[in-house]
Amino acid sequence: MSNAPLLKLSGMEQVFETKKGPVPAVGGVDLEVKPGKVLCLVGESGCGKTTTARAAAGLTKPTAGTVEFRGKNLAEMTAAERGQYRRAVQYIHQDPYAALNPTRTVFSTLSAGLKKHGIVKNRTEARAKAAELLQLVDLTPPESYLDSYPHQLSGGQRQRVNVARSLALNPDLLICDESTSMLDVSIRVSLLNTLGRLRDELDVGFLFITHDLAVAKYFAWDGEIAVMYLGKVVEHGPTPEVIGNPQHPYTKALIGAVCEPDPDLAKANRSAEQLRSAEIPSLRDLPAGCAFHPRCPAFEPGLCDAAEPPLQATPSRRKLSCHVVHRDLQRATPDATLTFDAVPGSRRPETESAL
Amino acid sequence: MSTVDAAILKPRKQFGETFFGRVWTGLTRSPAGFAGTVLVLGIVLFSFVGPLVVNQDNPTDTTQIWTEPSSAHWLGTQYEGKDTFTILVNSGAEPIWVGTLAALMAVFVAVVFGSAAGYFRGKIDAVLLQLTDVTVTIPQFLLMLAVVAFFDDIPAWGIAFVVGSTMWAFLFRSIRAQVMSLKEREFVEAARLQDLGTARIVFREILPNMAGFIFVNFVIAVNQAIYAIVGLYVLGLMPSGTPNWGLMIHQSWSQNFYLNPVAMPFVLAPLLMIVLFTIGLVTMGRGLDQALNPRLRER
């Protein structure tokens, strides 16, 4: 397994022009996804997760910066390279109702790509392959789904058809945009396990977007988490580090906001610092200095609202953009407010086969 | 992967699942759709097969002018003593095939241009939009009058061409708008992610979603075209060679036959045919709409 990144975003920016002025949805993001690894993007609504993912999937052109796939810049690819990229990178939409064509059967949806790219020779092969794909996503027996229309399926079934379709072309990289958020919990876990199998057995890389930290913790335990806030990555590091020992005040707030069924833990979490404001600043009118400073509990006037904090490496194996934390680190005051199990209800099972 | 059951390899395809089977079940399932289909088919058979069956020998007979309906003359005779029923049988074919041809042309042009403009946008869209702006501002009927007056001996397909060329613009606009909205849908994006190619995306992913709409518009276009052609005949602007509904109405009107009670079958028969055909087309269109929409199909 080579360690070269599958996907590399460097300094990627996406500015949308609107009538009220430019909206910088993503303002300079550097990310890497390696084969067989998961990069989880978390953050609240409107922070640019989906915009980043869409640019990575080649659905939109970034206004600045580059998207590289296997070392090749997306903007400079030849038609043949682009075709390869298109097949190797698949994107799973969030809404399973909108992502399937209502006039096509499941078989027709699954087999379109197979036929187009010569993966199957004839109809019999196509049906066999489509049935195989359905089995892969636990839609069994396949023959009872192949000839169904999307409106005859439930939301969870449709989402699994979506996933099956994205697997049809044997992708190297899957970009999942909240792909499990519309599923009920039991199906979510079985789908995550299916995706996990692809990750481990076929070395498929994942760019996994979620606002559910429990899902992030479960699926991306061996990978990395990047926390986004208003179009920028504020904390980026290995999942156990970021979840177990969050450093950035925003990450702490995110983790502190997760509901906790255990009252003792809940009390501990509540004692964590509270945000100063729940309001998200407008992207059109970003605050000066650190974009998080109007809400940040660690806000220090004169420091945070003066200059934008750079995304710097810290000794604890992660990158972080916060003036206060970096200064405190230089003064060598250790900071650990939250426990390893800060994300409740998501304790990673000791043995994965238990599920 | 596990071995696949042989049963999977064969699609469970019943009659209702092929395209024509679907159209047929859609047309016959609801009573209204069925009645409409029967009406349309009946009138089409009457007009196209009828002339082959009915004795075409229909001479002028001065002793038989304006007779009441009888066993020899089912709808009586007209002002020259010819059999009205024979005339009626021969009158339907031309309006129907000219109207259908005109509608086919208009719908074809509207679908091809409309989906190209809506899908590709840009220059092609701007040019086509300008073209429709011009087409829409031309008064349809005046253009037809001018063309018919200018080309004395215009063939029937020429009329179809003129009628069709004025009808496509409105349908073009609604198809363009629908394609523009459908192409932003996630399932089209998903098809693009699978690199399925533009032709497949437009024809297999987008257009089937508006098949019902296109069929209904085709039916409406047939209707409009028949009106336009009959209208030209009624106004007496067309060469009066072949018998047709419009010509019958023209004669009834210009020679005041409608004042003569005995002439009523001759006056009313073509009107009744047009009204029945229109009603049939509209109800059939509704049935088709339901048949082609998988969600409506199941109800």
From TrEMBL, chain A:
Does the entry feature the keyword Transmembrane, yes or no?
Answer: no
Any one Pfam family here would be ABC_tran
Q: Where is the ABC transporter domain?
A: 7-255
**Keyword Lipid biosynthesis among record annotations:** no
Q: Which domain of life is it from?
A: Bacteria
The record's SUPFAM superfamilies line, in alphabetical order, gives:
P-loop containing nucleoside triphosphate hydrolases
> Some GO term, biological process aspect, for this entry: which one?
transmembrane transport
Keywords on this record? ATP-binding, Nucleotide-binding, Transport
The Swiss-Prot or TrEMBL record annotates one GO molecular function as: ATP hydrolysis activity
Q: To which protein family does this belong?
A: Belongs to the ABC transporter superfamily.
Enumerate the NCBIfam families for this protein: oligo_HPY
**What is the name of this protein?**
ABC transporter ATP-binding protein
The top of its lineage is: Bacteria, Bacillati, Actinomycetota, Actinomycetes, Glycomycetales
Automatic annotation (TrEMBL), chain B:
Using the record for this protein, list the coiled-coil segments as residue ranges, or answer none. none
Q: State the membrane topology.
A: Multi-pass membrane protein
Keyword Transmembrane listed? The answer is yes
> Which cellular compartments is it found in?
Cell membrane
| UniProt keyword list | Cell membrane, Membrane, Transmembrane, Transmembrane helix, Transport
Annotated SUPFAM superfamilies: MetI-like (SSF161098)
Name the residues that span the membrane: 32-54, 96-120, 127-151, 157-175, 210-238, 258-282
Q: What GO cellular-component annotations does this UniProt entry give?
A: plasma membrane
Q: Which Gene Ontology terms cover its molecular function?
A: dipeptide transmembrane transporter activity
Stored InterPro entries: BP-dependent_transpt_permease, MetI-like, MetI-like_sf
Which family does the similarity line name? Belongs to the binding-protein-dependent transport system permease family.
Q: What is this protein called?
A: ABC transporter permease
